[in-house]
Design goal:
By secondary structure, this protein is of the alpha/beta class.
């Protein structure tokens, strides 16, 4: 599972993780549940139907499939599978029952979405698991606890019977060592705070935290000594001005002053990033850094990020 504050890179990291997990001869399923077609956009393919589609071949040779789970379609699939309501299910859809069930009862939506993910992890053909790994581009930190715990709530409502059995099986898988929740964050106050809160919440629910992925990391062009000078506004302005003049850049002194102000702001930001990094390190979880890709994310960049994650994986 990849969760994190909105916009920190959950979808990007989930895709990179799926590619990193796909070894030669294995199949990985990459799933999205937010109805946003984020995976199709990322891999630059037409919108995904409610159907698993091969979306990429990983550098190591494995296949990555993608699926956009749709709660309505999942409900019809369920009714068909468990109650053989093929046609009748479609009729329910026409009467708006399916809409009613999936939009009026948001908890039920999550039951259907997690149920589909569970089904994919268990599916076998001729005794062999179809997928070696399933990667979920999960809801954001603000909703992840409820999303992952919804089957616990179901188990509390249904004391016996098939619904209870299914809910128990899903919670068992989610709490087993087979499942890990990875938290994607930036080195900024809010995403880091949400990460810390989510770790606490998920651990209280007995869910396993995998690692923290620090995304969009920028390296400072200044070393620690220069950063310290810049923060104290003690950079040697005259010397910088001389350098600028020698390079034929603008009005040396004014430009040097402007640069020093920028350097101060930069040094302050680097200081804050380091504080945020320490807060993450204090969690005691594995941390992986992914660099900021200057030109934005395209399919090639996802492959590059996946190699960074694959290296981190083989180092451990
Ligand atoms: N390492 C990176 N370098 C540069 N840009 C990145 C990086 N990771 C993600 N991005 C960009 O940041 C934006 C947000 O990323 P993404 O969509 O993966 O985040 P998200 O957490 O899934 O967002 P949402 O909460 O909207 O689902 C996208 O434009 C993506 O291309
Ligand atoms: Mg996303």
């Amino acid at each position: 599972m990849a969760t994190g504050k909105g916009g920190t890179g959950k979808t990007t990291v989930a895709a990179a993780l799926a590619l990193a997990l796909a070894d030669d001869g294995t199949n990985v399923l990459l799933v999205e549940v937010e109805g946003r077609q984020g995976l199709a956009q990322l891999f630059d393919v037409p919108p995904l139907p409610y159907q698993e589609r091969k979306i990429a071949v990983a550098p190591a040779g494995g296949d990555v499939y993608a699926l956009a789970v749709d709660a309505e379609a999942a409900l019809l699939e369920y009714l068909d599978m468990y109650y053989h309501l093929g046609r009748a299910g479609k009729a329910l859809d026409r009467f708006g029952v399916v809409d009613f069930v999936t939009t009026i009862a948001p908890g039920l939506r999550d039951v259907l979405l997690t149920g589909k993910v569970y089904e994919a992890t268990r599916r076998r053909v001729r005794g062999e698991f179809v997928y070696d790994a399933v990667v979920l581009d999960a809801p954001p930190t603000g909703r992840i606890g409820r999303f992952l715990n919804v089957n616990q709530e179901v188990a509390g409502l249904a004391k016996v019977g098939p619904v209870r059995t299914q809910a128990d099986s899903i919670m068992k898988l989610l709490r087993s060592r087979q499942t890990a929740v990875h938290l994607v964050t930036l080195l900024e106050e809010m995403p880091v705070q949400e990460t810390l809160d989510a770790v606490e919440q998920l651990q209280a629910l007995d869910l396993t935290i995998g690692s923290v992925v620090v995304n969009m990391v920028r390296r400072s062009p200044l070393d620690d000594d220069d950063l310290a000078l810049a923060a104290k506004e003690k950079l040697p302005i005259a010397e910088i001005a001389k350098g600028l003049a020698a390079a034929g850049i603008g009005d040396g002194r004014t430009t040097a002053g402007t640069l020093a102000t920028e350097a101060r702001d930069h040094a302050i930001r680097v200081g804050l990033e380091r504080e945020n990094r320490q807060r993450i390190d204090a969690l005691g979880k594995p941390v992986h850094e992914l660099g900021l890709v200057p030109d934005g994310i395209d399919v090639g960049a996802v492959f590059d990020l996946s190699e960074e994650l694959a290296e981190a994986r083989s180092d451990r």
